[in-house]
Write a structure and sequence with these properties.
With 90 residues, this protein is mainly α. The chain is 82% helix and 0% strand. It is built from four helices and no strands. It has helices at residues 6-32, 36-59, 63-70, 75-89.
Length: 90
Amino acid sequence: NRQVNPTDSRVFWSSLYVTPVVWGLFGVLALLKLSFEWVIVSCVAISLSMANVVGYMKCEKDASQKFANFVPGQNIVQGAVGSFISSRVG
């Protein structure tokens, strides 16, 4: 087993969780500009980003602990995302 650099791990998991949020912001902006083509692109990007998140969380043994450390004090969000992912992953 190789030791994982904590900084590399934090950057990886942070970017993994932030990407769907950024695409969501792009989608809201596209919706406000009434650019429905870009809303569709944003929806597809969000779904692919979330699939990426679910895939990595499924492969990572302690992903739930990493997520809890990433979003401290956000029990409602953590519970909602956790239940969503667990219902999709099984």
